Amino acid sequence: MRGGLKAREARLAFWMLLPTFSIVIAIVILPVIANFWIAFKPIQLGDLRPPKPAVRESVRAQPKAAGEVLEVRYRIQNRTDNPITWARFTDELAPGLRPVELPDACHVAGALLTCELPGGLAPKKTVNLEVRFVAGSDYFAAGAPYPRDSRPRVESRAPNPILSKPFTVQNFASVLTDPDFWPMLKVTLAYTVFGTVLSILLGLFAAQLLSPPFAGRQVLRGLFLFPYVAPVIAVAFTWVFLLDPFAGTINA
Fold first, then answer.
1. Domain for residue 49, yes or no?
2. Contact 121, 157 (CB under 8 A)
3. What is the Cα–Cα distance from 135 to 96, expressed in whole angstroms?
4. What is the pLDDT of residues 83-100, one digit of tens each?
5. Residue numbers of the domain that contains 82
6. For residue range 4-36, what is the model confidence (pLDDT) as tens digits?
7. If you write DSSP's letter for every residue of 153-201 in order, what string do you get?
8. Are residues 230 and 207 in the same domain?
9. Would you say the pTM of this structure is higher than 0.70?
10. Residue 217: φ, ψ to 5°
């Protein structure tokens, strides 16, 4: 009977602690694994998201009367160092525009212009697509809207650099061969070692001074503990205000 009760208590404790374990794994362990994964990938901050093309629309010729040509150029750019495998954009056309010259990558269905690049875009590549329309009377009846009033909607597919690029130690080699790395490491170690040692020694010295009873000991103990309970943000802003080079109390 006692064995069965212990087993039920163990299962109950497991299910009660499972949410805590899940939160710890999601908040602490998974980001650590992600950081190690990224450290061995030849990527930069801009590679954390899949690349997307940038589409810029420019008007080359604006019609002044019915029957004249409206010429629009779409400039599609891949500004990243990663390839885009497929891209497409759509743009809403103003009423009264009839296409007369379209690139092979584009077609018009109703009032919607669609241009597709099935081969995608290589890194740092730019593609220009020029589209020509004839403006009818409906175009001017609608107030001759400027084509750039409607922004193209872009869709694309590209491999995620975090998953697609190979593992390498290039990042570590770049850091270790950087001429500023070793001086910064020395400064960091100096602050770590001397800061820790001095804080322990000064803390022990202050504790010994405040250990014997004397008048005002409780007040001094409270003052020593104040930095531990003061909000970090408030203390940081206080020092920023005091050391401000223009209006600071100390550094002005």
1. no
2. no
3. 6
4. 999 999 999 988 888 898
5. 54-164
6. 667 788 788 888 888 888 888 888 888 888 888
7. EEEEE---HHHHSPP-SHHHHHHHT-TTHHHHHHHHHHHHHHHHHHHHH
8. yes
9. no
10. -65, -40
